[in-house]
């Protein structure tokens, strides 16, 4: 494979577009809006669209039946739309056009979603390729709209999304909100570019896996190193390539819920609830295993770890293999997890059959691991889904004891993990991080305010202290510091809420339980 070209050089044939629903997708759904002052943008809308517009034209497509019902005038609806467009423009986002259907469903118009009228009009006017385009919305009709024209469907759980979840037709991808929808779109476009440069790439990767090969692939969390779950020899090669001890079981990845039955004996009610909210996504569930799952995969445990990744390339690969794929993170055992393809190629390239490049991982930290084998559920590893969100759905979750005092409570939950080669410590809160004379200290800062002293190197995870951004940058920043031949790296801990728990967990494991002391 020629790796000298960057994927951005490959151009897709037709222009891609993203058709955005308005209420519940870009802004809060507060009923029929009559006045721009009622508009409340979701926090993540602007940034998500900013990233999308670099690769696709943006349109808003909205049903405003309040006009037909006499609840809102056409002028009021137009003013609200104009305000939304103007707000986005002021924040650097260009919406090409707004398509607004003012009719009631019973009027039998041609333009109400899910009828394709507006999308076809846009395709003609702007020379779009609808099969390389996407619809993002919080209503089942948004999914129908996409599927009707062969576009990708992203169903967001904001707005009415949660309420109508069960009515959304299969064929769409369910995501928490606009941010994850945009990440999915960007990952799809990247996957298509890769396929243009290397025609048949995914097919070959799937054939390799079916024939006992081991293939690294992107997920939304970190890159995984996959083998077909029922091929014990291939699974053994994964352990060898990573130099992973065999007592540390693997996570099995599936592309559709129908594959779950091959792996688990039963699906408890709590699992159903969590699956319907968080899959595909960064949540791994530990469930009683089915007899056919090889002991090598589960390290002889009666349970199996399963997750459905939220990455188009991972899902397409597993779908083409036709069977679940067992995959640990694609790094040498105990080392920092890979969040880009080149992180895999360096240390493991010679030992594996293929590395699929899907760009940078959007979540950047591994999945949350939750055991549902007893009551209450037990959090085995904090990760990409915050435990608070899990508890909101299934009630209290037991935590494994904090690192320092814990005996190893699950295989692989080792106190030293994710480790750089450079001595690494977590700052213990004392006033300054002191460097000894001549000592080269690198600082891994959460926010821009930390560690702006006389240090040899510094990486900031998130200028403004955004935990999701920090998680996405964590392993890459750690690697960059690790490559600079420093004497010591000192990391600033992050607030211990939401994704922050997962970040602090990784910092503590990278440090193997040590804290930086003043002086
Ligand atoms: O985000 C992720 O989870 C990534 C991507 C590739 O999906 N995978 C990942 O795998 O982080 P790995 O192997 O680095 O971590 C898997 C963890 C290990 O700590 C292992 O001990 C635990 O999952 N695990 C697997 N099966 C288990 C089981 N049956 N019971 C308890 N822990 C289990
Ligand atoms: Mg909506």
Task: Give an account of the 3D structure.
This protein has a ten-stranded mixed sheet, with helices on both faces. Strands 3-2-1-4-5-6 form a six-stranded parallel sheet, with helices on both faces. By secondary structure, it is an alpha/beta fold. The protein starts with 16 loop residues before the first strand and ends with a strand. The chain is built from 15 helices and 21 strands. It is globular and about 70 Å long. Threonylcarbamoyladenylate binds next to strand 10 and strand 11. Magnesium ion (MG) binds next to loops.
Write the layout of secondary structure elements.
Layout: E1 17-20, H1 45-53, E2 57-63, H2 65-68, H3 74-90, E3 97-101, H4 117-126, E4 134-137, H5 140-149, E5 152-156, E6 173-175, H6 178-197, H7 201-210, E7 215-217, E8 224-228, H8 232-242, E9 251-253, H9 269-278, E10 283-288, H10 295-298, E11 303-307, H11 312-321, E12 325-326, H12 341-348, E13 354-355, E14 368-371, E15 378-381, H13 387-394, E16 398-399, E17 424-427, E18 441-445, E19 457-460, H14 467-482, E20 488-491, H15 499-511, E21 515-516
Parallel strand pairs: 1-2, 1-4, 2-3, 4-5, 5-6, 7-13, 9-11, 10-14, 15-16, 17-20, 17-21, 18-19, 18-20
Antiparallel strand pairs: 7-8, 8-12, 9-12, 10-11, 14-15
Helix pairs in contact: 1-6, 7-11, 14-15
The chain binds threonylcarbamoyladenylate and magnesium ion (MG).
């Amino acid at each position: 494979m020629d790796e000298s070209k960057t994927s951005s050089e490959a151009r897709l044939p037709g222009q891609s577009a993203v058709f955005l629903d308005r209420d519940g997708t870009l802004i809060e759904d507060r009923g029929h809006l009559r006045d721009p002052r009622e508009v409340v943008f979701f926090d993540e809308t602007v940034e998500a669209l900013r990233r999308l517009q670099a690769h696709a034209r943006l349109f808003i497509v909205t049903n405003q039946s309040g006009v037909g019902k006499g609840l809102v005038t056409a002028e009021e609806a137009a003013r609200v739309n104009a305000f939304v467009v103007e707000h986005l423009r002021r924040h650097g986002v260009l919406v090409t056009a707004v398509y607004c259907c003012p009719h009631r469903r019973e009027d039998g118009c041609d333009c109400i979603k899910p009828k394709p009228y507006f999308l076809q009009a846009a395709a003609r006017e702007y020379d779009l390729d609808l099969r390389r385009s996407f619809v993002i919305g919080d209503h089942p009709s948004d999914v129908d709209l996409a599927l009707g024209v062969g576009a990708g469907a992203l169903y967001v759980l904001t707005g009415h999304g949660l309420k109508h979840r069960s009515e959304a037709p299969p064929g769409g991808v369910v995501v928490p909100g606009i941010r994850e929808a945009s990440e999915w779109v960007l990952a799809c476009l990247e996957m298509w570019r890769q396929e243009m440069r290397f025609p048949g790439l995914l097919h070959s990767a799937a054939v390799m896996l079916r024939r006992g090969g081991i293939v690294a692939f992107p997920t939304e969390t970190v890159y995984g190193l996959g083998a077909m779950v029922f091929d014990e020899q291939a699974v053994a090669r994964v352990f060898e390539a990573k130099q992973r001890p065999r007592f540390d079981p693997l996570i099995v990845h599936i592309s559709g819920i129908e594959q779950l039955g091959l792996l688990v004996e039963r699906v408890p009610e709590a699992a159903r609830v969590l699956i319907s909210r968080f899959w595909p996504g960064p949540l791994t569930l530990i469930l009683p295993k089915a007899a056919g799952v090889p002991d090598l995969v589960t390290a002889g445990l009666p349970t199996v770890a399963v997750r459905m990744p939220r990455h188009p390339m991972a899902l397409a690969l597993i779908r083409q293999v036709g069977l679940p794929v067992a995959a640990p993170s694609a790094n040498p055992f105990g080392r920092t997890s890979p969040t880009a393809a080149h992180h895999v190629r360096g240390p493991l390239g010679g030992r594996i059959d293929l590395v699929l490049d899907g760009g940078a991982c959007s979540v950047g930290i591994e999945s949350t691991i939750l055991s549902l084998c007893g009551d209450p559920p037990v959090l085995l590893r904090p990760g990409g889904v915050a435990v608070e969100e899990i508890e909101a759905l299934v009630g209290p979750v037991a935590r494994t004891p904090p690192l320092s005092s814990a005996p190893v409570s699950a295989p692989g939950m080792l106190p030293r993990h994710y480790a750089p080669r450079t001595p690494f410590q977590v700052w213990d809160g004392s006033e300054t991080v002191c460097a000894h004379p001549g000592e080269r200290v690198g600082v891994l800062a959460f926010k821009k305010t930390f560690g702006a002293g006389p240090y040899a190197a510094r990486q900031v995870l998130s200028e403004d202290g955004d935990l999701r951004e920090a998680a996405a940058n964590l392993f890459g920043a750690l690697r960059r510091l690790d490559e600079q031949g420093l004497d010591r790296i000192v990391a600033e801990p992050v607030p211990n809420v939401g994704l922050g728990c997962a970040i602090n967990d990784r910092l503590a494991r990278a440090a193997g339980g040590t804290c930086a002391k003043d002086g």
